From TrEMBL:
Domain Endonuclease/exonuclease/phosphatase: 10-241
Pfam families (alphabetical): Exo_endo_phos
GO CC entries: membrane
GO MF entry, a single one: catalytic activity
Superkingdom, natural source: Bacteria
InterPro entries: Endo/exonu/phosph_ase_sf, Endo/exonuclease/phosphatase, GPI-anchor_lipid_remodeler
Organism: Psychrobacter piscatorii
Species classification: Bacteria, Pseudomonadati, Pseudomonadota, Gammaproteobacteria, Moraxellales
SUPFAM superfamilies to which the protein is assigned, alphabetical: DNase I-like (SSF56219)
GO biological process terms held by the UniProt record: GPI anchor biosynthetic process
Protein name as catalogued: Endonuclease/exonuclease/phosphatase domain-containing protein
Length: 251
């Protein structure tokens, strides 16, 4: 049976901790994501390992979070390590109900304080001739850094991804100035799901009382049927960001 459309959800999970880092929220996040039923997940701030929290909290899983979520949600998973430190490391992850082919973790770090990356995977929806390229991104906090990162992402896409390939670029852009649509998407011929559906970006941060639009789903050679933010309970107390979803299909 050919896949006609699929749901992609992008979510900064704040390393599986509550907004103020006082409680482990892995179980709550997994149960909430289960109700969403996304076919593809782009997760940011995924903890590959944290030895300190393993010792500190009984409910903190011993395995890496992308594997733990993969088992809970029955999804294939891939992880790109961006930031390494004494007790562990974190990065981005892509999880998929469809066959998943991890390709490359693109280093877009531009200063020593923030290690950032874009995880490149290919996902094969059932019955589709070509796989969908999924890029899961997490960008810096300062606009001057993000401008360099827009350029790095743009160069990578132009050099590595065929212009006619279905392409999704999703993640936490930290883009409170709302510049990435003009500076990155226009250059790559991509549309942003929320701007397309609602005529504007919707706020996703902070989760309890969202005022800033930091998260994005860009696409090319795909059609967006709908796009929505998951707000209210339980999402408002699970992470510091709200997740966003879009239903996508072939033109």
């Amino acid at each position: 049976m050919t896949t006609t459309s699929f749901i992609l959800t992008s979510y900064n999970i704040h390393k599986g901790m509550s907004p103020l880092n006082r409680q482990v929220k892995m179980q709550g996040i997994a149960q909430a994501l289960e109700t969403v039923g996304a076919d593809i997940l782009c997760l940011q701030e995924v903890q590959g390992q944290n030895l300190k929290r393993n010792m500190q909290y009984n409910e903190y899983p011993n395995q890496s979070q992308h594997e733990w979520f993969g088992e809970f949600l029955d999804l294939e998973n891939s992880y790109g390590k961006n930031s390494e430190y004494e007790n562990g490391h974190h990065g981005n992850a892509v999880l998929s109900r469809f066959p998943l082919d991890p390709k490359h973790n693109v280093n877009i770090t531009v200063n020593r304080l923030e290690q950032r990356g874009v995880l490149h995977c290919e996902v094969q929806p059932i019955g589709w001739e070509r796989p969908v390229v999924v890029l899961c991104a997490h960008l810096n906090l300062f606009e001057r850094d993000r401008i360099k990162q827009y350029q790095a992402i743009s160069d990578y896409v132009k050099n590595e991804i065929a212009p006619d390939q279905p392409l999704i670029l999703a993640g936490d852009f930290n883009d409170w100035k709302k510049m990435s649509c003009d500076k990155l998407a226009t250059e790559l011929g991509m549309i942003e799901a929320f701007k397309h559906c609602h005529g504007k970006l919707l706020p996703t941060f902070p989760a309890k009382l969202p005022v800033l639009s930091l998260d994005r789903i860009y696409l090319r050679n795909l059609v967006v049927k709908n796009a929505w933010v998951h707000s209210g309970k339980p999402w408002s107390s699970l992470s510091d960001h709200l997740p966003i979803s879009a239903e996508l299909m072939l033109p």
